[in-house]
Amino acid sequence: MNYRHAFHAGNFADVIKHIVLARILAYLGRKDAAYRVLDTHAGAGLYDLGGEEAQRTGEWESGVGALMDVALPAEVEALIAPWREAVAAVNPGGGLAHYPGSPLVAARLARPQDRLLFCETVAGVREALGAAVKGDGRAKVLPTDGWQALAAYLPPKERRGLVLIDPPFEEGGEFHRLAEALIGAHRRWEGGVLVAWYPIKDIRAVDAFRREVTRAGIPKTLRIEFDLAETRQADRLSGAGLVVVNPPFTLAEEMRTVLQAIGPHLATDGRGRSRIGWLMPER
Ligand SMILES: C[S@@+](CC[C@H](N)C(=O)[O-])C[C@H]1O[C@@H](n2cnc3c(N)ncnc32)[C@H](O)[C@@H]1O
Asked: Is 166 labeled as catalytic in the residue annotation?
């Protein structure tokens, strides 16, 4: 196991994933009732963009870095404001020295009544995450295998909330595993908002994943994909996608607006391409 998210923190895929996460939590936060977040592959929580790993790839520069000083339409700024707040919160001196991982995006948006469960199996990364959420009584960091956590912790007692499944994709069969995990999680918790992240590199694997999820017949499953350029380069990370089960009814339209505005800033060809649509017709 040698995946280290620090190399990729704040890249285009992180930015889109975390904007989606922030939009969903902003929506869940409209009702007073508590919600639960289960982040099955949580990572370190906080990333130093001046650190060796981030500097070595520089991926964040064409991700979060590309959105720092751009003037986006007011409507788009309003939609990404929760994500911007999470980024600003880890940069108290202004500028962009750090980037928040999914746990800190969630912790920023969660209210006192909400509960956060973070699974991370790599000890050093888990220690960093523990330090990043230290003193936050709402958050629990667990050494539990994220795939097993889906069986152990769903449905949560709050009966509302979100699961993020964001595995490293460093082993074969990860797409099938992700599809099975999503389908199993939905079986256990029909009403939960389930978010699964995947890379767009091996397009046949992506298609097979989409077919497997679609065949399961889960209603209300949204696909949000972004390609870095209109023309894909084979065998290179050319984009990233998210499947969202039970998204807030506003999410598809919101993300269309957001990606139309931020896509050209993240793209390698100045345009990029996004696809947002239902895997099954809405019931
Ligand atoms: C893609 S990163 C997570 C990024 C994070 N969700 C974010 O958005 O900031 C995947 C993480 O999963 C961890 N990991 C790998 N296998 C795991 C498993 N079976 N259960 C839980 N965590 C795992 C890795 O150590 C890595 O930190």
From this structure: yes
